[in-house]
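User: Fold this; tokens only.

Assistant: Input:
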Amino acid sequence: GDKVIVFSDNVFALKKYAVRLGRPFIYGPTTQKERIEWLSAFKQTTTCNTIFISKVGDTSIDLPEANVIIQIASHFGARRQEAQRLGRILRPKS
């Protein structure tokens, strides 16, 4: 089972795909409580294997369990942003 992070710079697309596929999504208005719940489920269960994240996930979210990244509706931002996202799957696994 792969653990997949789907990044989207476009919140409309993020929500549309996540809802359509029945997957959790994290973006600006997501509460801290919801973020913790979804990130914990992603890290610790096999039932939550895909999570959709907006730009809020570019920094300060640690998901070493992820091994696949998909970018949708990307603005192809700065190299730093790309490196941050790629770093999500290149971190050492436990």
